[in-house]
Amino acid sequence: MAAEIKVVPDNTLNSEAAQEFQRAAQSAVAGQGRFAVALSGGNTPRAVFSLLAQQHSADLPWDRIHIFFGDERYVPPDHPESNYRMANEALLSRVRIPAENVHRFRTELDPESAAKDYETQLQTFFREPGQSPPRFDLVMLGLGEDGHTASLFPGTSAPNETTRFVVAVWVEKFKMFRLTLTLPVLNHSAEVLFLAAGPSKAGILKEVLSRPAAALPAQKVQPTGGRLLWLVDQSAARLLQVRSQV
Ligand code: 6PG
Fold this sequence. Notes:
- By secondary structure, this protein is an alpha/beta fold.
- Helix content is about 30%, strand content about 20%.
- Helix 1 (about 15-30) crosses helix 2.
- 6-phosphogluconic acid (6PG) binds near residues 41, 42 and 44.
Protein backbone atom coordinates (compact mmCIF):
# COMPACT_ATOMS: atom_id res chain seq x y z
CA MET A 1 0.00 0.00 0.00
CA ALA A 2 1.49 3.35 -1.01
CA ALA A 3 2.33 5.81 1.70
CA GLU A 4 -0.07 8.66 2.29
CA ILE A 5 1.48 12.05 3.06
CA LYS A 6 -0.70 14.59 4.84
CA VAL A 7 0.78 18.05 5.29
CA VAL A 8 -0.95 20.18 7.87
CA PRO A 9 -0.40 23.71 9.22
CA ASP A 10 2.23 23.76 11.96
CA ASN A 11 -0.19 24.47 14.77
CA THR A 12 -2.60 21.67 13.85
CA LEU A 13 -0.35 18.63 13.78
CA ASN A 14 -1.08 17.65 17.38
CA SER A 15 -4.86 17.80 16.97
CA GLU A 16 -4.69 15.99 13.64
CA ALA A 17 -2.64 13.23 15.26
CA ALA A 18 -5.00 13.01 18.23
CA GLN A 19 -7.93 12.65 15.81
CA GLU A 20 -6.10 9.88 13.94
CA PHE A 21 -5.57 8.08 17.24
CA GLN A 22 -9.24 8.51 18.18
CA ARG A 23 -10.43 7.29 14.78
CA ALA A 24 -8.17 4.23 14.86
CA ALA A 25 -9.16 3.42 18.43
CA GLN A 26 -12.90 3.69 17.80
CA SER A 27 -12.62 1.64 14.61
CA ALA A 28 -10.61 -1.15 16.26
CA VAL A 29 -12.87 -1.36 19.31
CA ALA A 30 -15.97 -1.45 17.09
CA GLY A 31 -14.36 -4.09 14.88
CA GLN A 32 -12.68 -6.41 17.36
CA GLY A 33 -13.50 -5.16 20.82
CA ARG A 34 -10.06 -3.79 21.60
CA PHE A 35 -7.39 -1.39 20.34
CA ALA A 36 -3.71 -2.29 20.58
CA VAL A 37 -1.42 0.65 19.93
CA ALA A 38 2.35 1.11 20.19
CA LEU A 39 3.26 4.66 21.19
CA SER A 40 6.29 6.49 19.88
CA GLY A 41 8.74 8.21 22.16
CA GLY A 42 10.82 11.34 22.03
CA ASN A 43 9.44 14.88 22.11
CA THR A 44 7.01 15.10 19.21
CA PRO A 45 4.21 12.91 20.59
CA ARG A 46 4.13 14.48 24.08
CA ALA A 47 1.73 17.25 23.01
CA VAL A 48 -0.42 14.71 21.15
CA PHE A 49 -0.72 12.59 24.28
CA SER A 50 -1.63 15.66 26.34
CA LEU A 51 -4.36 16.56 23.85
CA LEU A 52 -5.72 13.01 24.01
CA ALA A 53 -5.91 13.33 27.80
CA GLN A 54 -7.53 16.76 27.65
CA GLN A 55 -9.99 16.23 24.81
CA HIS A 56 -10.60 12.48 24.60
CA SER A 57 -10.46 11.22 28.15
CA ALA A 58 -14.25 10.79 28.16
CA ASP A 59 -14.98 9.75 24.57
CA LEU A 60 -12.48 6.91 24.20
CA PRO A 61 -13.09 3.41 25.62
CA TRP A 62 -9.89 3.34 27.68
CA ASP A 63 -10.85 0.01 29.25
CA ARG A 64 -10.60 -1.52 25.75
CA ILE A 65 -7.36 0.22 24.83
CA HIS A 66 -4.01 -1.51 25.30
CA ILE A 67 -0.93 0.68 25.31
CA PHE A 68 2.43 -0.67 24.20
CA PHE A 69 5.65 1.15 23.31
CA GLY A 70 7.50 1.07 20.01
CA ASP A 71 10.77 1.47 21.83
CA GLU A 72 12.29 2.45 25.13
CA ARG A 73 15.48 3.88 26.43
CA TYR A 74 17.26 1.51 28.79
CA VAL A 75 16.58 3.63 31.87
CA PRO A 76 14.26 3.15 34.89
CA PRO A 77 10.57 3.84 34.23
CA ASP A 78 10.72 7.01 36.35
CA HIS A 79 13.83 8.37 34.58
CA PRO A 80 13.43 11.73 32.75
CA GLU A 81 14.45 10.04 29.48
CA SER A 82 11.94 7.19 29.80
CA ASN A 83 9.33 7.02 27.03
CA TYR A 84 7.03 5.27 29.49
CA ARG A 85 7.41 8.14 31.99
CA MET A 86 6.66 10.70 29.27
CA ALA A 87 3.50 8.86 28.14
CA ASN A 88 2.43 8.29 31.74
CA GLU A 89 2.79 11.97 32.65
CA ALA A 90 1.15 13.29 29.47
CA LEU A 91 -1.61 10.73 29.07
CA LEU A 92 -1.80 7.49 31.01
CA SER A 93 -2.03 9.01 34.50
CA ARG A 94 -4.78 11.33 33.24
CA VAL A 95 -7.25 8.84 31.74
CA ARG A 96 -9.11 5.91 33.24
CA ILE A 97 -7.04 3.15 31.66
CA PRO A 98 -6.65 -0.02 33.73
CA ALA A 99 -3.07 -0.55 34.87
CA GLU A 100 -3.07 -4.01 33.26
CA ASN A 101 -3.73 -2.35 29.89
CA VAL A 102 -0.38 -0.57 29.95
CA HIS A 103 2.43 -2.82 28.75
CA ARG A 104 5.79 -1.22 29.37
CA PHE A 105 9.32 -2.48 28.81
CA ARG A 106 10.63 -3.83 32.13
CA THR A 107 13.93 -2.01 32.12
CA GLU A 108 14.60 -3.19 35.65
CA LEU A 109 15.79 -6.38 33.92
CA ASP A 110 19.07 -6.56 32.03
CA PRO A 111 18.75 -5.39 28.38
CA GLU A 112 18.50 -8.80 26.76
CA SER A 113 16.08 -10.09 29.40
CA ALA A 114 13.95 -6.96 29.01
CA ALA A 115 13.76 -7.56 25.27
CA LYS A 116 12.81 -11.21 25.74
CA ASP A 117 10.29 -10.25 28.42
CA TYR A 118 8.62 -7.76 26.09
CA GLU A 119 8.51 -10.33 23.32
CA THR A 120 6.74 -12.66 25.75
CA GLN A 121 4.31 -9.89 26.69
CA LEU A 122 3.52 -9.42 23.00
CA GLN A 123 3.07 -13.14 22.34
CA THR A 124 0.86 -13.51 25.42
CA PHE A 125 -1.35 -10.60 24.43
CA PHE A 126 -1.63 -11.13 20.68
CA ARG A 127 -1.58 -14.95 20.65
CA GLU A 128 -0.69 -14.98 16.94
CA PRO A 129 -0.48 -18.47 15.41
CA GLY A 130 2.99 -19.93 14.97
CA GLN A 131 5.73 -17.37 14.51
CA SER A 132 3.47 -14.71 13.03
CA PRO A 133 4.38 -11.25 14.36
CA PRO A 134 1.93 -9.39 16.58
CA ARG A 135 -0.42 -7.18 14.57
CA PHE A 136 -0.89 -3.78 16.16
CA ASP A 137 -3.96 -1.79 15.17
CA LEU A 138 -1.78 1.31 15.21
CA VAL A 139 1.92 1.98 15.57
CA MET A 140 2.95 5.59 16.11
CA LEU A 141 6.47 6.41 14.96
CA GLY A 142 8.73 9.43 14.91
CA LEU A 143 11.60 10.28 12.59
CA GLY A 144 15.11 11.00 13.79
CA GLU A 145 17.37 13.35 11.84
CA ASP A 146 19.59 10.38 10.97
CA GLY A 147 16.64 8.47 9.53
CA HIS A 148 16.05 6.24 12.54
CA THR A 149 12.61 5.38 13.80
CA ALA A 150 11.68 3.70 17.05
CA SER A 151 15.18 2.61 18.10
CA LEU A 152 16.11 1.23 14.71
CA PHE A 153 19.28 3.25 14.26
CA PRO A 154 21.41 3.28 11.10
CA GLY A 155 24.68 1.43 11.59
CA THR A 156 23.27 -0.94 14.21
CA SER A 157 22.00 -4.49 13.76
CA ALA A 158 18.44 -3.60 14.82
CA PRO A 159 17.11 -2.53 11.39
CA ASN A 160 18.36 -5.83 9.93
CA GLU A 161 16.56 -8.08 12.40
CA THR A 162 14.15 -10.28 10.49
CA THR A 163 13.19 -12.89 13.08
CA ARG A 164 12.89 -11.46 16.55
CA PHE A 165 10.05 -9.07 17.43
CA VAL A 166 11.98 -7.12 20.07
CA VAL A 167 15.71 -6.51 20.40
CA ALA A 168 18.07 -4.70 22.74
CA VAL A 169 20.63 -2.64 20.88
CA TRP A 170 23.64 -0.61 22.06
CA VAL A 171 23.52 2.88 20.53
CA GLU A 172 27.03 4.30 20.64
CA LYS A 173 26.08 7.94 20.12
CA PHE A 174 23.92 7.83 23.22
CA LYS A 175 26.23 5.44 25.10
CA MET A 176 23.04 3.62 26.01
CA PHE A 177 21.10 0.47 25.31
CA ARG A 178 17.76 0.90 23.59
CA LEU A 179 14.92 -1.58 23.34
CA THR A 180 12.83 -1.64 20.20
CA LEU A 181 10.18 -3.37 18.18
CA THR A 182 11.67 -4.69 14.96
CA LEU A 183 10.60 -4.29 11.33
CA PRO A 184 8.76 -7.65 11.22
CA VAL A 185 6.38 -6.22 13.84
CA LEU A 186 6.18 -2.68 12.44
CA ASN A 187 5.49 -4.01 8.94
CA HIS A 188 2.76 -6.32 10.17
CA SER A 189 0.73 -3.44 11.61
CA ALA A 190 -2.75 -2.54 10.43
CA GLU A 191 -1.66 1.10 10.44
CA VAL A 192 1.56 3.04 10.92
CA LEU A 193 1.33 6.75 11.71
CA PHE A 194 4.60 8.67 11.34
CA LEU A 195 4.68 12.12 12.92
CA ALA A 196 7.27 14.68 11.85
CA ALA A 197 7.18 18.28 12.97
CA GLY A 198 9.40 21.30 12.71
CA PRO A 199 12.05 22.65 10.34
CA SER A 200 14.77 20.38 11.72
CA LYS A 201 13.02 17.39 10.10
CA ALA A 202 12.71 18.95 6.62
CA GLY A 203 15.98 17.54 5.27
CA ILE A 204 15.58 14.00 6.53
CA LEU A 205 11.90 13.92 5.58
CA LYS A 206 12.72 14.81 2.00
CA GLU A 207 15.45 12.18 1.95
CA VAL A 208 13.22 9.49 3.42
CA LEU A 209 10.24 10.21 1.17
CA SER A 210 12.02 10.91 -2.10
CA ARG A 211 15.14 8.71 -2.15
CA PRO A 212 14.11 5.50 -3.94
CA ALA A 213 16.45 3.02 -2.24
CA ALA A 214 15.04 2.07 1.15
CA ALA A 215 18.36 2.40 2.90
CA LEU A 216 17.34 4.29 6.01
CA PRO A 217 15.47 2.49 8.78
CA ALA A 218 12.45 4.79 8.46
CA GLN A 219 12.26 3.89 4.77
CA LYS A 220 12.08 0.21 5.62
CA VAL A 221 8.76 0.72 7.40
CA GLN A 222 6.37 -0.49 4.68
CA PRO A 223 3.39 -2.25 6.27
CA THR A 224 2.63 -5.14 3.95
CA GLY A 225 -1.09 -5.26 4.67
CA GLY A 226 -1.60 -1.97 6.38
CA ARG A 227 -1.92 1.77 6.00
CA LEU A 228 1.15 4.01 6.10
CA LEU A 229 0.38 7.63 6.89
CA TRP A 230 2.98 10.38 7.20
CA LEU A 231 1.39 13.24 9.13
CA VAL A 232 3.78 16.16 8.86
CA ASP A 233 3.58 19.87 9.49
CA GLN A 234 4.37 22.54 6.92
CA SER A 235 7.74 23.34 8.48
CA ALA A 236 8.86 19.72 8.18
CA ALA A 237 7.40 19.47 4.68
CA ARG A 238 8.95 22.64 3.28
CA LEU A 239 11.32 20.69 0.97
CA LEU A 240 8.65 18.31 -0.30
CA GLN A 241 6.70 18.81 -3.51
CA VAL A 242 3.31 18.38 -1.81
CA ARG A 243 0.83 21.04 -0.77
CA SER A 244 -0.91 21.30 2.57
CA GLN A 245 -4.05 19.19 2.56
CA VAL A 246 -6.01 21.35 4.96
C1 6PG B 1 12.72 7.76 20.92
C2 6PG B 1 11.81 7.60 19.75
C3 6PG B 1 12.51 8.04 18.51
C4 6PG B 1 11.87 9.35 18.13
C5 6PG B 1 12.67 10.09 17.12
C6 6PG B 1 12.10 11.49 16.92
O1 6PG B 1 12.70 6.91 21.81
O2 6PG B 1 13.39 8.81 20.95
O3 6PG B 1 11.18 6.47 19.64
O4 6PG B 1 12.43 7.15 17.43
O5 6PG B 1 10.56 9.09 17.63
O6 6PG B 1 14.01 10.18 17.60
O7 6PG B 1 12.19 12.13 18.17
P1 6PG B 1 11.59 13.62 18.40
O8 6PG B 1 10.11 13.50 18.31
O9 6PG B 1 12.06 13.99 19.78
O10 6PG B 1 12.16 14.50 17.31
